Amino acid sequence: MAFLFASPPPSYAQEQLHGHLSSLSTLPVSVPHTQSAPDKPSSHLESALHELSSSRPPSQSKLKEVLKELADADVKNDRFAVQSEIDRVVEGEIMGRAVTLVWKEVLDDLMRAAVELNGEKGWWDGVLTSRTGVTIYLIQSE
Fold it and tell me: pTM value?
């Protein structure tokens, strides 16, 4: 039970981001119905879409693993995995969800760096506004 209090609770922005990613990952796949299209996508595309469509976004390592499995399936079959129209649509959905997850990671890193930089800016503002701080700064920079 102590693990619940070990980390700070998620911020409002993190909860909103998680909610938006969850809603993106559960959007249905719409395929235009044609005579020659099979009812189901190929198995490795279907399993990859299932992995990326959970209500909780997968971790960065899980995303890498799913994309690596898709690439390995292409190499192993010695041809592209996309064989039909539904495969093309599912592959587009997989790539869209993967790009969304990568973009989330990039934004998280940028926000973390901005918060850290803001903290350092506040510290330097405090140092440079006091007489003792200016003296210490001059001594350090000599």
Answer: 0.60
